[in-house]
Amino acid sequence: MALVSSLASLLAVAALLAVAAAFGFRILRALNLLPESRLEGFLYAAALSFSGLQVALFLVGMTIGVKRSLLVALLAALALAAGKGWRQLGETLRSLATFVRELRNTRGLLLLTVAIAAVLLLDALQAMAPLSGSDALHYHFTAPLLDLGRTFAPHFDLAQSFETGQTHLLILAGLTLGSDHLALGLIYLGGVLAAGALFLLARQLMPASWALTVVLVFLLTPLVFWQMTVAGAPDVWMAFYTTLAVLAAARGVASRHHRWFVLAGWLAGAAAGAKYTGWAIPAVLVLLIAAEARSLRPAVLAGVASLAAGIYPLLRNFLWTGDPFFPFFARWLAPGSVNTYLLANFEADTGMGTARNSILHMLAYPFVVVLQGTSYGVGHYLGPLVLAFAPLLLLALRRTPLIRLTALLWLGVLGSNVLTSQMGRFLLPVFPLALALVFAGVARLEGKQLALARVGCRATIALFFLFAASSYAIYAKDFLPVALGLESRQNFLFRKAPDYRTADFVNRQMAGRDGAVMVFFRHVYYLRVPYVPADPDKSWRMDPNRYRTPEQLLDLFRQLGVRWVLKAPAYPEPMAPAFEQLEAQGRLRAAASEEIDVLHGWRIGGTREPARAVLLQVVDE
Amino acid sequence: MTEPHHHSPQAPDFPQPLSPRLERLVASRPFQLLFLLWLLLVNAIYYAQYRDLITARWPVVRSLWP
């Protein structure tokens, strides 16, 4: 049954892609933006439709709420409006079939394509495992779930919900259409499309065999397979939009038609709309377009398109808080309501404010981000190949617009990463650019008298494949059984989803009880009862400076309708004394308790510790 | 190796000849040896990060690790 459900969700994702591509083809034709390459046209079509859908859902969500009937009607309208776009989609599929048939004649290409197909298939199945990613359970999926079917509203108790962007609207679409599997499938689709865009870019810089090798490297890179399968974060869509933006900008330079710059700007804006740090992408690209086109007009057009595509989360945050990048600029833009405790925690969490900014350190960053990745936002998950092959940029960097755009956008985003967060994983949007460039250098070693360097590169790639395949296997063995129906969903969630046991305890104990329960654990996605997240590290409301006494807490309970408090296993440190006083005064009284075990650290570590969960009733007489 | 062309996008940016000076530099033995040393160094430092993870899972590897 689980396998059938997985396949049904994947089919639904494929159907969504078909509608998006067909409608996108129609739009591209109307805008006279159809390139001769069918794959390229297909990817632009999908990118335009999905980015447009994100904007539409955002506007609908902010006004009347995204309801299932409305979303289904919208998709049906897109399918009907696609018209001749369906024919172009059919031609693209026929062209793909011809491509595959021709591969039979070339064993090397066939082998690479089969390997890529196998990885994509395994990725698809893993993506169908129940949601268990830590950030996803905290906010990537929780915030859209809270907004399901309702007009969007600020969730100050879940401060990271302000960091959700337009790609989260795809998660919302998946949840609205029926399940988190569909939402995870849409994230996986972003990875597939990013791999397609990388192939297009690489194909312009190297022969097909190397372009396919780069795609395989991309898909097997730990950061990529983690993000497109089980992480539950939509960042991989940024890699798709960014790579296509570069290709569109290069077309603009080559054709001198401004509409390509508008498309490039729109796609860069779609990437930026996903995440605060993404704004470096259109900022740099607009400057590059001005330089390449030697004119301000196309740069301004691209800039306006970027804003039109991605500004909405910033407008939303400004509307709700006065700070478009809430909470990072709140101390200047909304000083009256700043929770300094949480802000410091956020800055530490994202690297903002804790980044090491000495010149020496910044120069070392491109090395240490990969070689000491645990200290730099899991930068080691990017693999060693970009750094290892960086000297070959000498061979790759030619004076062509495409290479200049690719290299300088990568450099610009790397620079912004150094200056702001110094988190390696935030480099995912430009990772395809970096891979394509360094592999262009590797490909250039072929056919030259460079035997030693060639052998070194091939050994390095072989070692990476060995490492990546092993890492992949270690990861996949935990997620495939449940997707294939060999493990029950409940057992998987007990084993793999952090705080699931705690959420399960709360759901069972709160059944039939009135009022909301205050909880302090991070991963609240699976809670199905009214709750108030109250970890001061994550909730803007729970400022420890404001809630120091039992009376202040009781006031808060009354204000929020909280009649229950979960202690599992302890209260958050800065507020513990006030809660403990309430217990001592008999105003928090134990109603139920259970031994649970809590997953610590990364899921892959599987470290568990026993803990006691106690549900306490608020006695407010 | 023949290449299917149906999905080839724009005119490829390759092959473009390298400048003769660059060609000579990268073909030189010192450059290649330096590059090999670089690869060795990056690979050694990179994979050393996984030492604890790997040896915890497969203790037999501990004896092989430098």
Q: How large a portion of the residues of chain B is in β-strands, by DSSP E?
A: under 5%
Radius of gyration of chain B: 21 Å
Strand order of the largest sheet of chain A: 2-1-3-5-4
**What is the CA-atom radius of gyration of chain A, in angstroms?**
25 Å
Total beta strands of chain A: 5
The topology string of helices and strands of chain B comes to: HHH
- Spatial separation of the terminal alpha carbons of chain B: 40 Å
Broad structural category of chain A: alpha/beta
Largest sheet of chain B: none
* Strand segment count of chain B: 0
Mean pLDDT of chain A, to the nearest integer, reads: 94
Helical content of chain B (DSSP H or I, runs of 4+): 40-55%
Beta-strand share of residues of chain A: 5-15%
SS summary, helix count of chain A = 28
- Cα-to-Cα separation, first versus last residue of chain A: 51 Å
Question: What's the mean pLDDT score of chain B?
Answer: 74
* Count of spatially separate domains of chain A: 2
Q: Biggest interface between protein chains, with counts per chain? A: A-B, 62 and 37 residues
The stretches of 5 or more residues of chain B where confidence is low (pLDDT under 50) are 1-11
- Oligomer state of the chains in this structure: heterodimer
What report would you give on this structure?
The complex is a heterodimer of chains A (621) and B (66). With 621 residues, chain A is α/β, with parallel strands linked by helices. Helix content of chain A is 63%, strand content 6%. A five-stranded mixed sheet of chain A has the order 2-1-3-5-4. Chain A starts with a helix and ends with a strand. Chain B has a domain at 27-63. Chain B is built from three helices and no strands. Chain B has helices at 20-27, 29-48, 51-57. The longest helix of chain B has 20 residues, at 29-48. The radius of gyration of chain B is 21 Å and the shape is rod-shaped. The chains are: A alpha/beta (621), B mainly alpha (66). At the A-B interface, α2, α4, α9, α12 and α23 of A face α1 and α2 of B.
